[in-house]
C-alpha cells in the first residue's frame, strides 16, 4: 500500500487526505437537520440575544418556536420540496424560520436585503418559492412578485403596500400550539435542505443545492473544530445569516453546541465592540477588512471598550498575511486568530487553522477539514499534482453540494461523477498539509499568454504605506489581450499619484505583471464574506470604453 506522507498525500491515487480526526455522521437515513440539532445534549441556557433590543430566546423557547412555526407552515400547505424565501436582516428569528422550514422537508432560500428588486426577482424566477418571509421595510422589494408573504415584524407607523399579499405574521404563527398530528413527510438526509445563491464574484449567481446530510456534516465539523462542550461560549454574530458563513455558524452549527449568540441586525463597528463588552463575548467571527480596521484603530478601541473577555477572532474570506497576523497579535496579545476557508458549494467547510501555531503558517487557509479530501489538478493537462505544486484545488467530502439548481451544465462543469468539486481556486498544499490559495482560476489575467494572479499584485499594493485597500482586475487590450488595472483606496491625507502606484509595483514584479492603469476610489466593493466583487469593477472599468 502506498505511503501517506506528512502532508496527507497518498502517492498511489494522488489524493490529499485530511490530517484531522474524521467526523462522525449519523447512520439513520431518515433524519433532518432540525431534528439532528434539537436532539443534541448540551448545558447551554440562552441561545440568542438581540444586541440592540436585548430580547433573548432560551434553548427551550427556540425549539418551542420552531415547533409552533412548523405547525403553522404545515397548516398553510407547506410541504416537502416546496421552496420558501427569507429576505431579512439578521435577527433572533432568522434561525427559527430556517429550522422550521427545513424540519418539514421544505427548502429554505435566502437573499441579501441589499439586493435590488431586479436581483431578487431573478432569484425568485429561478428558485420558484411558494411563500416568502420578510420585514415591513423590505416589503416593497417583494410586492411586484405577487408572492404570499409572512411579515416578520409589524410597523404600525408605515403603510403596507396595497398590492402586498400578506397571509400572516410571524407573531401570529408563533402563538400556534404545536400539533402532534400535523402532516409530516418523511425527510431523508439526501433530501434538499437549502438553496443558497453563490456570491457570483466572477459571474452570474447560481443556486447551490445542499442536502440535510451536507448541513449535518457542516454542524459536526463546526462542533469538532471548536470543542465547545468544554464550556459555554458567547459568539458575536457580525456576518450575514443569509450567507453560508452566517447560516453555517449562527443559524445551525453553534446552536447544537449550547453556545450563546449575540445577533447584530446589521454590522456596525461600535455596536460590535459594545456588545463584546456588555455580553462578555469570547468569539468574534469577522472578515479581513474588519480585522485590519481593529489593528489600525487599536488604541482608540481599547481605550473606549473592555474587550478582555475576547478569546478568539475567526477570520474568513481571504488568507491573512504575516503583517496582518502579527500586527493583530501585537495589539491584542490575549486574542487568538483562527482562519477558515470554504465555499457555498461546500457548506462553508474546506480548511481551517484551529490554533495560533497553525495560523502562524502565514498566508495559509489551514489544514483540510475533517473527512475532507483534496486533489491539486493542473488546469491545462488535468494531471494530478504532488506536494508544493500549484494547480486547481478539487475537494470531496460530506459537505460538498448536490449540484446547482436547475443548471445541469454548471453542475457537470463543477462536479464530476466521483463527487469531486472543482473549486476554481489555484492552490498548493505544502509538505505539512497546509493549503495556500494563490488565486481564483477564473480571475487570472492573461497578458500576452502570461498568467498574472491579481491577489499577488493586491498584496503588494497593500504593503504600500499610503494604500488602505486595493483590487486588481483584467483590463481588455487588443494588442496584449488583458493587462492589470488597479483600483486603489488611498489614506485620507495621501496625494499618491497614478504613476507613483505603477512605479511602486514595477520595481517589485516581472515586466508582464506590471500595473498599467490605476483608478482611485473611496471603497472597494466586496461581498459579505470579504471577497472582492471583481465583476463589478470590470463593469465599471469597461463601461468607459
TrEMBL record:
Per the UniProt record, which residue ranges are transmembrane? 242-264
InterPro entries documented for this protein: AMP-bd_C (IPR025110), AMP-bd_C_sf (IPR045851), AMP-binding_CS (IPR020845), AMP-dep_synth/lig_dom (IPR000873), ANL_N_sf (IPR042099)
What the entry lists under Pfam families is as follows: AMP-binding, AMP-binding_C
Q: What is this protein called?
A: 4-coumarate--CoA ligase
Similarity annotation: Belongs to the ATP-dependent AMP-binding enzyme family.
Tell me the GO molecular function terms.
ATP binding; CoA-ligase activity
The yes or no answer to whether the keyword Ligase is present is: yes
Residue ranges constituting the AMP-binding enzyme C-terminal domain according to the UniProt record:
456-531
Alphabetized UniProt keyword annotations: ATP-binding, Ligase, Membrane, Nucleotide-binding, Transmembrane, Transmembrane helix
Q: What is the lineage of its organism?
A: Eukaryota, Viridiplantae, Streptophyta, Embryophyta, Tracheophyta
Which GO terms of the cellular component aspect does the record hold? peroxisome
| Residue ranges occupied by any AMP-dependent synthetase/ligase domain in the UniProt entry | 40-405
